[in-house]
Amino acid sequence: MGQTVKNKKSKSASASSRSKRRNRKREGFRFFRFLSSIPAWGIWLGAILIAFAYVFFFYYFFVDPYSFRWKAIYGKPQYPEGYDIRGIDISHYQEQINWQKLRNANINNDPVRFIIIKATEGVSLMDDNFNENFYQARANDFIRGAYHFYVPGLNVDKQARFYLHQVHLDPGDFPPILDVEKIGSETPQQLKKNVLRWLTIVENHYKVKPILYTSYKFKTQYLDDEVFNQYPYWIAHYYVSELRYKGEWAIWQHTDCGELDGIRGKVDLNIFNGSEAELHQFTIQEDDDEELLELEAEEADAP
Which one from 89, 121, 179, 268 is the annotated catalytic residue? Predict the structure, then answer.
């Protein structure tokens, strides 16, 4: 009796399996009949649309956010014409720098005049190579600058104080610099408020307008406010022969794929929007009172 029940169940399962296979075959036949009913032009049109959708999504998610890197594969960086005051910006990503070679290096046949160095990020992160790079830049007669990488969502007062605690700028250095690239969880209104707060705190300390670094797209999308026009603008805009931004700007980071003697790998290349005299005037100046005291001291020491 038990064997009979098992045989019945086995036959029933086998019949069910055969029925499923027949249904799948019927569905397959229906699908192929459907395809055969479509005219050739319809199949070609569908294939073109699928290919277009694939290319679009691939570009949108994988190429456009990093377009400057993709473009760098196919040629050397462009060097905007009409400018001859050139510089670079560096961080620990450039690892150990050969300063003797860098001191004699050229960018498009122009010497390197200034070096901007990553100093701090957020409320506690110090760039590993900042102290060495900052010292070597001055020791090798470069105009130097130091920037803070703004981290949205962290206390902006603490970020400003952390920068001021770690970075000690001298006359002849660039004004302090704030690097703003991400909005994170902040609203555009919060971002503007916090960026302005950082700039104000640091300006009150150094008595000079800080430099605001961001990209052309980020500036126009999130920081397009007249309140920021009072600050010197360091703009990142890659692989264009001229800036689309129509406002005033001080420094243009025109590529992050530059090559230079003394630095292994790629490095950001920048140009200053002005003459050599304007470049020096752009730096932090000696306080008038300090200059007067030094002059008086020199006169007192004179025979």
Answer: 89
Q: DSSP of 224-275, one letter per residue?
A: --GGGGGS-EEEE--S-SS-S--S--SEEEEEEEEEETTEEEEEEEEEESS-
Q: Which of 128, 157, 181, 290 is catalytic?
A: 181
* 234 φ, ψ (degrees, to nearest 5): -105, 110
- pTM here is 0.72
| Catalytic residue list contains 225 | no
pLDDT (tens, 9 = 90+) of the chain, 303 residues, equals 555 544 555 555 555 666 656 666 566 556 556 656 777 766 677 678 777 766 655 544 444 444 444 444 445 677 888 899 999 999 999 999 999 999 999 998 899 999 999 999 999 999 999 999 999 999 999 999 999 999 999 999 999 999 999 999 999 999 999 999 999 999 999 999 999 999 999 999 999 999 999 999 999 999 989 999 999 999 999 888 788 888 899 999 999 889 999 998 899 999 999 999 999 999 999 874 454 445 445 555 554
Give catalytic status of residue 278 as yes or no: no
